[in-house]
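hey all, quick one before standup. I had two proteins in the batch that finished overnight and I want to keep them in one place so we stop losing track of which output belongs to which input. First protein below, input sequence then structure tokens straight from the run.
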Amino acid sequence: MKTSWMGLVLGLVLLIVVSSDAGPLVFEHPGLCCFKFTTSEIPKTEIKEIVETHHGCPLHGFVVTTPKGKFCKKNVQLS
């Protein structure tokens, strides 16, 4: 009887843990990711923002925001 009770309790705890919204960071959804990169030069005067892609993305890059939209670049050099 005690074994059945303990199995039921452990089963419920396992069910709660598996169905919980609070998961480990492994399942964290990346924010910005790039899959295609532009090779064209973007004038510095047009750049509004540069954001590095999330560490969980398959490819590393930078998202460059301009008045015309967002573009992905592999490397960004500001000088």
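OK second protein, same deal, sequence then tokens:
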Amino acid sequence: MSNHEKSTHTKGDLVEAGIKTAENNEDAEFVFDKAMERKIMWKCDLHLLPPLSILFIITFIDRTNIANAKIEGMTTDLRMGNTDYNKALWILNIPYICLALPSNILMKKGFMKPSIYLSGLMFCWAVCVIGMGVTKSFKGILACRFLMGCFEAGFVPGCAYLISRYYKRKDFSARYAVFFSAAVLAGAFGGFLAYAIEHMDGVGGYSGWRWIFIIEGLMTVATTIIGLLFIPNYPKHSNFLLPKEKQYMLNMLKLDSGPSRPDHYNLTVMKECLFDPKIWLGMIAYFGADTAASSIVSFQPTILKSLGYTNAQAQIHTVPVYIVALAILNICAFFSGYLRHRYGFVVFGACLGVIGWAVELTVPITSVAARYCGMFAIASSAYVQMPLIVAWISNNMGGNAKAAFGTGFVIGIGNCGNLVSSNIFITTETPRFRTGFRVGLALTCVGIAASTALELLMFHQNRRRESGKENEKLELCEDALGDLGDNHPNFRYML
């Protein structure tokens, strides 16, 4: 192996990645080996992303199957009122919002292997999904949905945190986008699956919508075996890397994380987490995108049916919407990682949403093709923004403790968008749904404002640090300096 291959990462590269090396002699001794790094990244990609993505596909199908069950007769069989479906949607999100952050803090504590923790959560909510298929009342649906929210709360934030532990900041966005693509793929697959299962109507004395829950719940139970067997442990305890590869990766990630990397929670670290405007702005941006995503997930079949499609046509027409969103997401994630830039792609996704919501609001209901195209724009907007915002926040958190808090907070609290979407698409407004589309448009604009504020804040901080205006912090004692995280004078934010 040539020396050139081992030293292609210059000091300038490291500064662009978010760290400065001149002040840290220990890190300066680390020798980059490009061939070794490529080999490690391939191993991580093959051992980490496939099992998590498979589990996420099943998770998303479980989360969205209620929308398919609705148009197959669930609301009629259970004598649900005009707003009961909306209640069934938002009740899941109450525990989801409250428990996402505590779950990620538990993940950070490492009290249980990720494979056991994530698979255990999945098994528990699978039982709830099956319960929805056999319940005889609307109250049973509410109870199962609430418990689902309790168990699902920790899954996506936990996966995001686990993935972030394996990759450098510039590489995380593309990997998280691959993981998040599973949700988009599940949206397409879920439509096909619901279309197939509905033909079981009457089998065993059960309606087609009941079989949707029962079969998909049993699929989830079976999938937990994949999680138990194949989800790796944290990097320090991983068993798919050779000892020298593991040590190289740990040193590489230590250097990439910057000069201050708190790996624990104390009063200083918790204060930095709770009062960091970056986390709050990221959460607001995610909130706007999540409203669009949850609207598509929960109401797309209903909206399509209101445009004149039959039940089967509505199920099938959801598929291309997700496929296009999947393609746009991965293109944006690739170039975002390649260019080491987040903001422009987040705003691009939001602008797609503005176009989509505007089309749905202004185009006549008789223009079915145009309204259908609007759904493409809204879905692409949501699925481009959400993974990039999570990656953006994770990239700019100093240390594993703050990264766990930041991703859990943004995904958990940002998921309040589900509460909004579940109450703005009102049955009596069919087929215009003006309230839903107006609120979606407004929150997308709020998301653009929050992302722009976040970009300007970090740009200003980088300029201050480049000019040495925060160097007085370097005079702090070693413990205090170590707890600064991304407030360390040598940390550079990824814009």
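Flagging for whoever picks this up: Residues 1-28 have pLDDT under 50 and may be disordered. DSSP finds 20 helices and no strands in the chain.
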